[in-house]
Amino acid sequence: MSVSLSRPAPPPWVRYGLAVLFVAAATVLAFVVDQLVAPPSLALIFVLPVVVAAARLGWGPALVAVAGGALAFDFLFTEPRFSFRISSPADVWDAALLLVIATIVSSIAADARRRAIEAERAAGQARALQGLAHVVIEDRPMAEVFTAAAEALHGLFGAPAAVFLDDKGAFGPVATAGGATITRADEDAARGALDTHVATRSEAYPYDQTEFDFWPVATPGGLRAVVGVDFTKAEEERPAAPERLVDIVRGYLTAAFAAGRG
Predict the structure, then answer these.
(1) What local confidence, expressed as pLDDT, does residue 190 receive?
(2) Are residues 27 and 111 in the same domain?
(3) What is the model's pLDDT at position 6?
(4) In the chain, which residues have pLDDT < 70?
(5) For the chain, where are the alpha helices, taking DSSP H only?
(6) Domain of 45, in residue numbers
(7) Using CA atoms, how far apart are residues 185 and 243, in angstroms rounded to an integer?
(8) 65 vs 14: CA distance, rounded Å
(9) Do residues 244 and 127 touch, judged by C-beta distance below 8 A?
């Protein structure tokens, strides 16, 4: 069973649109309580959409909420109303205070969201590797190990993954995960990684038609297997150094080969 790193993020237009809707909701609330609270307290209502946007949508939408809230407060709730001109020094201070507080709060909330996403990603990666480890430790057949390795790679990167095997000259994919589609160009690149003992990069010479990155797997009997990940279809951008995690999967495969299981 594959393990996804995290829930796919909504597209940018959805996230920024939600930030605008949050500001609109705060504006409606401000109209409701306009006659009940003083302007400084009214300004703080526009901090709410900033907090929600930063915590749920990210830094960019939070900045949109900051700007939208400040403009809405200035235009609708400072004198003269329905104008961006502010005549009262007190209102100038209220608007400035809104900007400062909203910016600080959005920064804190966005940082908390980033840490939560990183923690969720780390937990997903641990689960992906744990599944592969159990298959290897339990001495399962190599067919199950190959499947678990492909699913682990898919879980680690949220991308299609494949494992290739050279079995007495017969070379081809033995396991895939994440909806991987293997083309002739992919097979050529995987074979190249096997023959040269060097990892290959997608869309790079001489395998510029492949979308997979491939890594050969060292085994006691020589290089017989290759693992690949299609980062072009990943849930997130290609990591700067995917080798750190790929090497763990390769290590488990090497251990399984060394055990000589059938």
Answers:
(1) 94
(2) yes
(3) 47
(4) 1-9, 39-40, 221-223, 260-262
(5) 12-33, 39-45, 47-56, 59-77, 89-137, 142-157, 184-196, 243-259
(6) 12-118
(7) 22
(8) 14
(9) no
Shared-domain flag, residues 31 and 104: yes
Residue 113 shares a structural domain with residue 143: no
Q: 168 in the Ramachandran plot: left (φ > 0), alpha (ψ -120 to 50) or beta? A: left
As for how many domains the chain has, the answer is 2
pLDDT for position 226: 95
Q: Is residue 133 part of a domain?
A: no
| CATH number of the domain that residue 157 is part of | 3.30.450.40
- Backbone φ, ψ for residue 174 (5° rounding): -115, -10
pLDDT score of 93: 81
Domain final residue, candidates 57, 84, 118: 118
- pLDDT at 110 (0 to 100): 78
Rounded to whole angstroms, the Cα distance separating 203 from 180 reads 16
Judged by phi (left if over 0) then psi (alpha if -120 to 50, else beta), residue 110 lies in: alpha
* Position 157, amino acid: F
Under 8 Å between Cβ of 22 and 58? no
> What does the pLDDT read at residue 5?
44
Same domain, 32 and 81: yes
Do 67 and 107 have their domain in common?
A: yes
